[in-house]
Amino acid sequence: MATRAIHLPESSYALLSAEAQRRGLDPDALADELVRADLAAHGERDLETTLKSLAEFRATLPEIDGLVLARDARAQLEQRGDS
Q1: How far does CA 15 lie from the centroid of its chain?
Q2: Considering only CA atoms, which of 48, 70, 57, 10 is closest in space to residue 18?
Q3: pLDDT of residue 62
Q4: What is the pLDDT of residue 51?
Q5: Tally of CA atoms within 13 A in the half-sphere of 37 that contains its CB
Q6: Residue 77 and residue 28: Cα distance in Å, rounded?
Q7: How far apart are CA 30 and CA 25, in angstroms?
Q8: How open is the CA angle 39-43-46, to the nearest 5 degrees?
Q9: Among 55, 71, 65, 3, which Cα is nearest to 31's?
Q10: Which residues of the chain have pLDDT under 70?
Q11: What is the 3-state secondary structure (H, E, C) of the chain?
Q12: 24: left (phi > 0), else alpha (psi -120 to 50), else beta?
């Protein structure tokens, strides 16, 4: 394993050390885990993939007629007012 030094501000290193201790890890191991999780996630999903998955999700949703929805809501409000 190649070793390279990365310099962090004291406040960042303190956060890293505290979280590493909480997880029972060495700060270097946690830094590696965080970098891999963050940077690998960005490389795997591009905009086109995200848009395609959102379009597929949207296709599973029922169609909504805004006018009908507004009329139904108005009718329900009027019924509450009559009580």
Answers
A1: 21
A2: 10
A3: 85
A4: 85
A5: 6
A6: 59
A7: 6
A8: 135
A9: 3
A10: 1-2, 41-45, 83
A11: CCCCCCCCCHHHHHHHHHHHHHHCCCHHHHHHHHHHHHHHHHHHCCHHHHHHHHHHHHHCCCCCCHHHHHHHHHHHHHHHHHC
A12: left
Of how many residues is the chain composed? 83
pLDDT of residue 42: 61
Question: Using CA atoms in the order 21, 26, 28, 34, what is the torsion angle rounded to 10 degrees?
Answer: -50
pLDDT at 44: 58
In the chain, the amino acid numbered 35 is: V
Inter-helix orientation angle 10-23/27-44, to 10°: 100
What is the pLDDT, as a whole number, of residue 71?
95
